[in-house]
Design goal:
Strand order of the largest sheet of chain B: 4-6-5-10-11-9-7-8
CATH topology of one domain in chain B: Amidase signature (AS) enzymes
Oligomer: heterodimer
Number of strands of chain B: 11
Number of strands of chain A: 2
Structural class of chain B: alpha/beta
Order of helices and strands of chain A: HHHEE
Helix content of chain A: 25-40%
CATH class of one domain in chain B: Alpha Beta
Distance between the termini of chain B: 11 Å
Largest sheet of chain B: 8 strands, mixed
Strand content of chain B: 5-15%
Order of helices and strands of chain B: HHEHEHEHEHEEHEHEHHHHEHHEEH
Strand order of the largest sheet of chain A: 1-2
Largest sheet of chain A: 2 strands, antiparallel
Chain lengths: ~100, ~475
């Protein structure tokens, strides 16, 4: 199964990465090469095999829902691309 | 000063006995870093920060009872966030980013008194096998400046090979410690998944990401691994085990040790120069009294296909945090919020992370999840099971780290699949999550280093480091220093 240019555009949209037509064309052939590599795995008989989510098995540990440390507002905002009145600034989302 | 020629144990002894001060040592390494800037290994160096840490280390030593590593310099891969240096993951996305906190690994080593020399270049978000994916330029291989230093921990491998840092942190997701270690002739150690904390390690593929070390010997690695790892409640896959002395098996002879040699690691594609050096190393182990056992890991060849589903899937999820809202690059011009995010990501992320995000987004998307992601997780278990069975027949597994010695710049950069094959022998162990390492075992084509890979069962780092140390007692490959860096 090979991807099409439409697939690349759709995936890029889902991933929220703007992509030019030229980039999409270049990416398409690379992705198809990679999926050709991945195909080898799909033929393997895995009936009855439990998926392995991570090496050490078992459920992931949850911690108590408690505040353990607090980063002050100035430190949290230090790397913000845009801020105002101690808040992160984004384009208007609700008309 | 010849501090760069001695072991960490010797550096520690000189510091504790006040033959050398931490400040003098830091100054000597900072001078070496400055003299070899052409390697492009460091992304951020701040002598005032380093020297302040060194002064504090000297005060701790003067006060008595300091940890043996107090005052020993270390450089950190720029995947670990640090509050006193930029943390960029070698990406434009995080240019100028200052973390409000230190990664647990950085904090642990700082608490042991180690002095930070700076932050090291790597492939962007640790994705790559040559360091050519850094947004801040290639790192050069100290053995041959026309060769890649390996990746993704290429800065870490280069500085240790060049002796411009005595030890460096690194991370391994599919081979990113072992492959660069092999390419630069240093000792690269990846512990068991879950032993070192992932907290503050900029995430790539969370079920694989493992912190480790580049050093000049297995003994050095054993000394630093202890304080580096340990249970961290902030990491949901951190392993809760008591602390260990990883030096405990260093003096243990390898006589009687059963070393499994997987036939699949010596198939087509393995270059003759690498095979010759690796076979000679195995022969050395036999001479030292170990028994070589033929083993088979038939599913190992599925490692790459499995990895290129699992790792991109996890990466697409982890890198969704880079949206240009709270931190990171934001596009200059944009329309609505979605447009701002899409443009910021398009501008801030490099080609390789984008490629992997796209693959991951696809394999996780509706209708493909079971066929790709779940199937990959099932085959991953088959691979892990084969290792489990293999370790019933042997104590360690040994083989090549890479198919070839370090390749040249640009040789594989245009062909992602060729680049991905660089990790053929390292990915299976990563998928299983077992400890593994690369130790230098000779030189191949063009005088470039060759690495021997050692793999151990879960939590058997001490055994692996012990066997590596015994080899290093009998050989001198790990003491070789590239021309121009002596």
């Amino acid at each position: 199964m090979a991807l099409t240019l439409d697939d690349v555009a759709r995936i890029a949209h889902l991933a929220r990465i703007e992509i030019t037509d030229e980039e999409a064309r270049r990416t398409l052939s690379q992705l198809n090469d990679i999926f050709a590599l991945i195909e080898k795995m799909q033929a393997v008989d895995t009936s009855g095999v439990e998926p392995m989510a991570h090496p050490l098995g078992g459920a992931q540990r949850l911690r108590a829902d408690e505040a353990t440390e607090v980063i002050d507002r100035a430190a949290a905002l230090r790397n913000a691309p845009a801020q105002q009145d101690g808040l992160f600034l984004v384009p208007k989302v609700i008309e | 000063m010849t501090a760069h020629l001695v072991s960490l144990a010797e550096l520690s002894r000189q510091l504790q006995s006040k033959q050398v001060s931490a400040v003098e040592l830091a100054q000597a390494y900072l001078a070496r870093i400055e003299a070899h800037r052409d390697l492009n290994a460091f992304l951020d160096v701040r002598p005032e920060v380093t020297l302040a840490q060194a002064r504090a280390a000297d005060a701790r030593i003067a006060a008595g009872g300091a940890h043996p590593l107090t005052g020993v310099p270390i450089a950190h891969k720029d995947i670990f966030v640090t509050k006193d240096f930029f943390s960029t993951a070698s990406s434009r996305m995080l240019e100028g980013y200052m973390s409000p906190f230190d990664a647990t690994v950085v904090r642990n080593l700082g608490e042991a008194g180690m002095v930070t020399l700076g932050k090291l270049n790597c492939d962007e978000f640790a994705m790559g096998s040559s360091n050519e994916n850094s947004a801040y330029g290639n790192v050069l291989n100290p053995w041959d400046k026309g060769a890649v230093p390996g990746g993704s921990s290429g800065g870490s491998s280069a500085v240790v090979a060049a002796r411009i840092a005595p030890v460096a942190t690194a991370t391994d997701t599919g081979g990113s410690i072992r492959e660069p270690a092999a390419f630069t002739g240093v000792t690269g150690t990846k512990p068991t998944y879950g032993r070192p904390s992932r907290w503050g390690m900029i995430a790539f593929a969370s079920s694989l990401d493992t912190a480790g070390l580049m050093t000049n010997s297995a003994e050095d690695a054993a000394l630093v691994l202890g304080p580096m790892v340990g249970f961290d409640p902030k990491d949901s896959t951190s392993v809760d085990r008591p602390g260990e002395d990883f030096t405990r098996d260093l003096a243990k002879p390898v006589k009687g040790l059963r070393i499994g040699v997987p036939k699949e690691f010596f198939g087509a594609g393995l270059q003759p120069d690498v095979e010759a050096a690796v076979r000679a190393a195995l022969e050395e182990y036999r001479r030292l009294g170990a028994t070589l056992v033929d083993i088979s890991l038939p599913s190992a060849e599925l490692g790459i296909p499995v990895y290129y589903v699992v790792a991109p899937a996890e990466c697409s999820s982890n890198l969704s945090r880079f949206d240009g809202v709270r931190y990171g690059h934001r596009a200059r011009t944009y329309g609505d919020l979605n447009d701002m995010i899409a443009k910021s990501r398009a501008e801030g992320l490099g080609a390789e992370p984008k490629r992997r995000i796209l693959i991951g987004t696809y394999v996780l998307s509706h209708g493909y999840y079971d066929a790709y992601y779940i199937q990959a997780q099932k085959v991953r278990r088959l691979i892990a099971e084969e290792f489990r069975r293999a370790f019933e027949q042997c104590d360690l597994i040994a083989g090549p780290v890479t198919t070839s010695v370090a390749f040249g710049f640009g040789e594989k950069a245009a062909d992602p699949v060729a680049m991905y094959m660089s990790d053929l022998y390292t990915i299976p162990g990563s998928l299983a999550g077992i400890p593994s390492m690369s130790i230098p075992c000779g030189f191949g084509a063009k005088g470039r280093p060759v690495g021997l890979q050692l793999m151990a069962n879960y939590f058997e780092e001490a055994k692996m480091l012990g066997a590596a140390h015994q080899y290093q007692l009998a050989t001198d490959w790990h003491t070789r220093i590239p021309e121009g860096f002596r």
